[in-house]
Amino acid sequence: MTPHIGQRITAQFDELSAQEQRVASFILDHFDDLAVYSAADLARLTGVSKSTVSRLFKRLGFESYRTVKDHARQLRNLGVPLVIDANAMQEEAGAPFQRHLQREQDNLQRCLNSIAHQDFSALVERLDKARHVVVIGFRNSYPLALHFRQQLIQARTQVRVVPQPNQSLAEEIVDLSEQDVVVLFGFRRRPAAFAALVEALERSPAQVALIADPTAVNFASQVAWFFETPLESLSAFDSYATANSLICLIANGVLHRRLAEGRERISAISDIYSDLSELEAPTMSVDWSAQ
């Protein structure tokens, strides 16, 4: 596999000139923002000449700054972790926290701004009335699928995550009907068979909601609902805070559509928790009268 830009910089960093090191450190610290900078901007912001910037790119194996940008964009789309220089992030006291907060707020704002109110209401209504809710997620999406199921099953029955460990999907989707809803989580670094699964679900009579990052937009036309959920963070690893916030919003929407049944079901579940001593005793109770 061809080394990505972070690996190339790390491998050659000690051999770079002091000026080249400044540019290399800036690239790592501002990796997510490379698209807004030109080669001249890099030279100006790092206090070096444009020829130094060009020389660095060639030493790293890139023909031009455009190829660097294309490489960076491809890495982000694939979800490849790229470690950002921690020292650069710590130059200003509190800067990492403020930048992280801003990025999380931006992600959530982008997500919510992209969702039409009628689409959200339609999905919540279908999740309320569906015979079965089938939740699917692979790799990084699997914990989100589990969490969504755990939230939704507090309010309604017949919610399942498929496939079960070491099982296949075919048996789980063959019986889908127009009364069923599939919630598919498809965040980047998806398995190779993901496109085939979307096609199979499109052929089924069930309605499908896809919750995924922007790289899955090509699948939007094949599903009933596509909720675009950004993952961008300041450094190597994606942030799923916005995805979990959206899960909370959807689950609460379903609960409040069936509040009477939901209250009764949650109370019954809590009673069984107590009977089985599965959870610690709660320190406070929920005041449903305020809902």
TrEMBL record:
Matching SUPFAM superfamilies: Homeodomain-like, SIS domain
Domain HTH rpiR-type: 3-79
Coiled-coil stretches: none
Highest taxon, organism lineage: Bacteria
Protein name per Swiss-Prot or TrEMBL: MurR/RpiR family transcriptional regulator
